[in-house]
């Protein structure tokens, strides 16, 4: 369910599990599958996305998701758009059963949801929005990967050296200075990374000096509606894919950090360290979870900061810094003392241009998906001809 954003299943999924051939045959995903989330919070239950097979990787879906394969009269893209529009969402929510810990929708009740059968020409227009949006998303990912190559070359990182050696020797003073006794902390790959950063020609500095850390908590006003960003709202390429709109009185106690345009939000929770994003104009003044560190760049621009935090080497250092048992996370002191290279300005500018283009493609992808959803609502409210005219005007 964490890999469904904006009516599409994510391109990058890093979870793996050992399953039997029988289980694989049951849960293997196919191009055009529609996945429906039947359980979790009231906000998340009913989240629906379409899966496109964009590569040769075999994927399965979790058992708390339901696969929907429509019959001939309904295209999968239209089904997905309908279940995400306000009428489909209302029908799903009214069937949901809420308890203290979670909300559930019985798949048998989902089968009872009535869907208007739109003309196939309009359904094909909706399908076109989805397929074009998916193509733009794939292109955006490809363009984003160029920044990783630029950074890799700039820092001259040898990936093989990070994993080839698994044995190291340390002095007792090293344990005293770090306060860490876990073997993972002293793996040679971390020494390789920190050495590379220290040898960068333009120097290095720690996060404390490179950014303003916005860690002051704000208590939301009960009567004001806020945009609230949590870990599940962060996409694979550093984009905020959505948010919750809620009054302060109903927000969770972790909704305490205000973010502004250009800020970088970085997850502090192990297992979701890749959840880093740039705050765009759309989310200026929004609240985010205290599970994020909120950083305002001083020296390294927002786009380069994002690529750095999502890079393999800095991700490794973030993981190394995590401590705890039940909830493993990075404490403030460990986080702000991590060093980053002072990337050359020309390189920063090159990365910024690429990231902005990638962001623009994602925004166009999102616009097309919203167009599809609004076309469905228009067809229901004003008729199919009005929906076709709406599509023609805004396409």
Your description of this structure?
By secondary structure, this protein is α+β, with helices and mostly antiparallel strands. The longest helix is centred in the last third of the chain and has 38 residues, at 345-382. It is built from 13 helices and 18 strands. Strands 10-17-14-15 form a four-stranded antiparallel beta sheet. A four-stranded mixed beta sheet has the order 12-11-16-13, with no helix packed on it. A three-stranded antiparallel beta sheet has the order 5-3-6, with helices on one face. It folds into two domains: 1-116, no CATH class; 152-344, DNA methylase specificity domains (Adenine-n6-DNA-methyltransferase TaqI, Chain A, domain 2). Helix 2 (76-84) packs across helix 5 (120-155). The mean pLDDT is 88.
- CATH class category of the largest domain: Alpha Beta
Q: What structural category arises from helix and sheet content?
A: alpha+beta
Overall geometric form: globular
CATH architecture identity of the largest domain: Alpha-Beta Complex
Assembly category: single chain
Q: Estimate percent helicity.
A: 40-55%
Please count the beta strands (DSSP E, at least 2 residues each).
Answer: 18
What is the makeup of the main sheet? 4 strands, antiparallel
Order of strands, main sheet, comes to: 10-17-14-15
């Amino acid at each position: 369910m964490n890999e469904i954003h904006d009516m599409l299943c994510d391109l990058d999924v890093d979870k793996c599990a050992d399953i039997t051939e029988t289980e694989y045959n049951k849960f293997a995903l196919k191009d055009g599958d529609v996945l429906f989330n039947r359980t979790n919070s009231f906000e998340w239950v009913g989240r629906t996305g379409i899966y496109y097979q964009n590569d040769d990787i075999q994927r399965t879906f979790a058992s708390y998701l339901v696969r929907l394969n429509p019959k001939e009269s309904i295209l999968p893209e239209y089904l997905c758009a309908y279940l995400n529009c306000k009428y489909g969402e209302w029908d799903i929510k009214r069937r949901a059963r809420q308890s203290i810990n979670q909300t559930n929708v019985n798949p048998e009740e989902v089968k009872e949801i009535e869907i208007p059968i739109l003309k196939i020409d309009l359904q094909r227009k909706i399908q076109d929005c989805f397929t074009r949006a998916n193509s733009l998303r794939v292109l955006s990912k490809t363009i984003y990967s160029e920044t990783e190559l630029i950074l890799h070359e700039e820092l001259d990182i040898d990936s093989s050296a990070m994993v080839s050696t698994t044995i190291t020797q340390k002095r007792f003073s090293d344990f005293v200075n770090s306060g860490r006794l876990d073997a993972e902390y002293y793996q040679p790959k971390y020494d390789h990374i920190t050495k590379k950063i220290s040898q960068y020609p333009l120097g290095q500095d720690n996060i404390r000096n490179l950014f303003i850390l916005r860690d002051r908590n704000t208590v939301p006003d009960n009567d004001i509606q806020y945009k609230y960003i949590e870990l599940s709202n962060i996409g694979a390429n550093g984009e905020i894919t959505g948010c919750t709109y809620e009054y302060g009185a109903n927000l969770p106690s972790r909704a305490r950090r205000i973010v502004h345009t250009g800020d970088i939000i970085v997850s502090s929770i192990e297992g979701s360290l890749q959840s880093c994003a740039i705050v765009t104009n759309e989310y200026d003044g929004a609240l985010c979870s205290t599970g994020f560190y909120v950083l305002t760049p001083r020296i390294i621009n927002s786009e380069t900061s994002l690529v750095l935090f999502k890079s393999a080497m800095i991700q490794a250092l973030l993981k190394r810094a995590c401590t705890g048992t039940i909830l493993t996370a990075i404490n403030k002191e460990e986080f702000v003392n991590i060093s980053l290279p002072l990337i050359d300005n020309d390189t920063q500018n090159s990365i910024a241009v690429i990231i902005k283009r990638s962001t623009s493609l994602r925004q166009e992808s999102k616009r097309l998906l919203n167009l599809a959803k609004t076309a469905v609502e228009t067809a229901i409210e004003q008729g199919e001809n009005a929906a076709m005219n709406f599509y023609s005007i805004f396409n």
